[in-house]
Every structure is written in C-alpha cells, then in structure tokens.
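INFO  loader      accepted 1 record
INFO  loader      residues=343
INFO  predictor   begin
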Amino acid sequence: MIKVGVKAVVFICLFLVQVVVALVYKFSLTNGEYNYSTISAITMAEITKFCMSLYMTLWFSVPVREISTSTSVFTSMSLKFSACRREIERQLNKKFVLHTFILAVLYGINNQIVFVLYQYVDVVSISLFRSFTSFLSAILLWIFFSRPINRIQWSAITLQVIGLIIVQYDACKKLPILEIHLYLILMLNCTITSTCTVWNEHLLKNYSVSLYIQNLVLYFFGFIINFCFFAFSYAHTADSPKGFFEGYSMLVLAVIFCNSILGLCITLAYKYADAIIKTFSSACATGAFLFLNWSLFNQATNLTSGLGAAIIFISSYVYFCAVPSSTTTRLESEPNTNQKTET
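INFO  predictor   done
INFO  writer      dumping tokens
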C-alpha cells in the first residue's frame, strides 16, 4: 500500500503547479482574447512532453550492463536507442496503443475546452466546479474497476460537492452565478477530465508498461493529433487564421512550459497515488484562487465563497484521514512489473 505521506507530497506538488498554470493561462489573455493559436501552444507542449519522456525512457529503461563506460558517446547513444526500441516493442501491444490513442484524442479536445473556460469564466469558478471531477472519478472507479471507497470518503466527496453548490448559487438573485451555457461547458470539461483520469490511471496500473514508455506513446499521439487539429482549424478559418508561431511571447512560452510540467506531474500522481488525489488538489487550489481573484483580478469575494472554500478544504482533510484498510486498497498498490500484459 502506498503510504499516506507520499500521497500528501503528490497532493502539495499538484496544488502548487495548478495554481501557477491557472495564472499563466489568465495572464496570456489580451483584452479577453488569445493573440496566439491555443492549438499551436498545446502542440508545442506535447512536443516538449514527448522529448522529456524520451529522455527519461532512455535514461531509466536501458540496463546499465548493456553500455560500457569505455564506449564513445555516439556508440553509447546508439546502444541506448536500440535497447529502448527493443523495450518498447516488448512492452507494447495493439490494445494498449489503441487505448492510448483514444486517450490522447480526449486530452486534445479537453485542452481546448480549458482555454475557452479561462477566456469566459473566473479561475475560482473553474477550480470550484472541478470538484465534481472527484465525485465523477469516484463513481467511475467504483462502477468499472470495483475500487472500494468507504463511507467516510463518500461523505467527504459529498461534502465537497455541497460546498461547490453553496459557492455557485446566488441566494439574493436566486440564480446560479454563471450563465447556463458556461455550466454546460464546465460539465463537459469535468466529464472528459474524469474519464481521462480513471482511464489513464487504469492503463498505468494494470498494464505492464513502463510509465516512461506510456508517456512516450501518449505524447507522441498528442503531438500528431493536436497538429492535425491545427491544420484543420487553419484550413477552415475564414478570417485571417493565426500562423503556428504567430503571437508567441514569454507568456505563451510559459503556457507551454507549465502545461508540460502539469502533464507529467499528473501522470506521476496516477502512478504513485490515485486519481481522486489529483482532483482534490484542484479543489483545494480554490483557497489560493479566492485571494488571487481579489488581489490580481479585482473581483469581489464574500463570506459565502470563503465558507464554501473552507468546506472543500475540510472535506479534503477528511478524505485523507479516511485511509482504507489494506484489504480495500489492492488497486492502489504498485502493479507487478513482471506480470503479463493484458491483451
């Protein structure tokens, strides 16, 4: 069983990264518009993640005994690439590759939905509404993978959703804070996120494929898919379509870098923690966003928002305290690296 301390470290890292990512996305807007192609930015992020994954695959997946210290740099790299290729051929099968391709398509669509949300919705509402992903992820894990969740954890998830409803409802106007179509987009984002979360975790923990090789395949498909999205968008945009590198600035480079780091951090969370830890870290970032919304974006906050965020914090603490017994966490343990790959 993975220790609670490891999950806490993953939780804190994800919390910090997601706060930075949200701020970078918001500051990359100019007068409420993106002066660059968001599809291009995600394509570059996928290339960056692919290169990082390739480096880690070469570094961690090649046995040291195959490379002598006396060999030249060129020979050493050639041996590394050959050993890496053999390892990829040994671990991958058609079913895993197909699952990863579909996952990459969903991620590509969801990334563009996120850009739309940051354009029209404040960061607090986005973060708070993502609390639903913890509920949806738990349901999916419970239904499809028999992941046990005890009553205290279910209570914590329910409490988090109640906190979200409190913050999103304007009692004076007796209306939700946002327009209905924005809630529909948020729901679509949460549904795709939850599906990808559970699906990705299942692939990482139930196939005998290295984390680094899985990332390599996922981000390779991500680059190809997003580049195809850009080509299609460029060809079918009537009014002066943006070029691939048009409008690039330091903030756009920050968007690419932060997206790359976030993607790798989330994958590590799937591998060494569990899916719901990731969604709870998103919810707890809300406390920081409440302050930043007021200090940086001049958006008023109130006691209701503060209490709703407090409920989300408390529910996260309760969830962490409700550690399942060893008999109910078999799916959270490390997979046997010697087990036979699913077919």
